Amino acid sequence: MRSQILLLFVFAICVAAVPRQAVAQAGPPLLTDDPDTPGNGHWEINLAWTLSQNRTSRLFGTPLLDINYGLGQRLQLKAEVPWLILKDQQTGTQSGIGSTNLGVKWRFLDKNRNGFAISAYPQLEIRTSASSARRGLIEQGAELRLPIEISRELGPITIEAEVGYQFVQREKDELVYGLAVGREINKRLELLAEIHGTAKRDFADHEPIFNVGGRFKMSKHYTLLFSSGRSLRGAATGQPTLVAYAGWQFNF
Predict the structure, then answer these.
(1) Rg of the chain over CA atoms, in angstroms?
(2) How far apart are CA 128 and CA 138, in angstroms?
(3) SS3 for 38-92, per residue?
(4) For 94-107, what is each residue's pLDDT tens digit?
(5) Which residues make Cβ contacts (< 8 Å) with residue 93, sequence separation at least 6?
(6) pLDDT interval class at 19 (50, 70, 90)
(7) What confidence tens digit (pLDDT) does each residue in 134-163 have?
(8) Domains and CATH numbers, the chain
(9) What pLDDT, in 10s, does the model give residues 25-83?
(10) Is the dihedral of CA 17, 211, 7, 194 positive or negative?
């Protein structure tokens, strides 16, 4: 864990050297989420290509459709579903629809009043296709995630933290955590980095991932999203040797 925190510290020092313009946020293309919402009556749609690769297989999300809607200034409704392609050295290529993720985010503390923002973001992931589960594309059971997100500005750096508990049907429950730092370099470009992980409730099977990325604003309504990372554990553990995200964000 000490080396993981050091990686984020180095990133924070690098972005702090750039003149301050504005504040960056977590969320796509990162795994760690933040307390921000789209705003009342606004849509945020992310259309992405994702990759998770280990020593024996590659799992693609092509595409990943992530739809978010602002209900008031503090509420966000979410629906997300991918089309998955699994390329495995032993079983060959399989494809099918992934699990559907439904969520509601509620920001109950605002940054402009308290210096930091806090939200709750319960999410339910349900099996969309029994066929996809039989072929190993998705898990057999449902998952209920109950995370809390916290955002705080420290001078030129924005720090986002997320921690939660995940109820997993037919498996051990999991702990979920994330720590992200970000910086808006100019009016178009944001730089981001995170450590995000899961562990069984008994702290076994720890899966930490280090990820870096950014957002490039093409126009008022269109933003390019990108990130890449890998597990901080060895490839022999079966952890991802590469995770990647590339996509478009539409705001209207």
Answers:
(1) 18
(2) 9
(3) CCCCCEEEEEEEEEEECCCEEEEEEEEEEEEEEECCCEEEEEEEEEEEEEECCCE
(4) 999 999 999 999 99
(5) 85, 86, 87
(6) very low
(7) 888 888 889 999 999 999 988 778 899 999
(8) 2-251 (2.40.160.40)
(9) 779 999 999 999 999 999 999 999 999 999 999 999 999 999 999 999 999 999 999 99
(10) positive
Residue 200 parent element (H or E): strand 189-200
Q: For the chain, how many residues are written?
A: 252
Residue at token pair 């509601």: 104
- Within 10 Å of residue 90's Cβ, how many Cβ atoms? 6
Residue 159, phi then psi, degrees to nearest 5:
-115, 130
DSSP 101-132: EEEEEEEEE-HHHHSEEEEE--EEEE-S-HHH
